[in-house]
Amino acid sequence: MTKHIISPVNFETYKLLWFGCKTLEVRAGFSKIKRIKTGDWVSFECHETDDYEVVRIARYRSFDSMLAVEDHSKIMPGLIKRHVHDHLRNTHTRLAEVILGMYVFELRNIGHANAQQRCMTVSG
């Protein structure tokens, strides 16, 4: 197991990850991202004390192919698929999508075994 510190997420996204509402993180396939393996831990800059286990990794050539397979509500809870697609398109360049590919990390909040239950309590 290796721990990786990756670029930060905004506070709203961080809360969704921490509570377990958001379990899929999308990243462009830069070399630092490609080094992450299933079973490794990741944390985000500015929130380095909270670790997430990488449960699964998938690589896609486009947002369309990714959203045909992945549950968009686990990428951006509360948004419809079209809005998730638009948000991803606005935050990642076409070059990153096509040349680098998009990586989807399924994350599990380490140390917060009941995070999913908290998410259901908060959102419902």
| Distance, first to last CA | 35 Å
Order of helices and strands: EHEHEEHHHHEH
The biggest beta sheet reads: 5 strands, mixed
The number of E-state strands comes to 5
Strand order of the largest sheet: 1-3-4-5-2
Rounded to an integer, what's the Rg over CA atoms? 14 Å
Mean pLDDT figure: 89
What's the helical proportion of residues? 40-55%
Low-confidence stretches: none
Q: Quote the beta fraction.
A: 25-35%
Judging from the principal axes of the Cα atoms, what is the shape? globular
Q: Helix/strand/pairing class, anyone?
A: alpha+beta
Count of DSSP-assigned helices: 7
What is the compact description of this entry?
41% of the residues lie in helices and 28% in strands. It is an alpha+beta fold and 124 residues long.
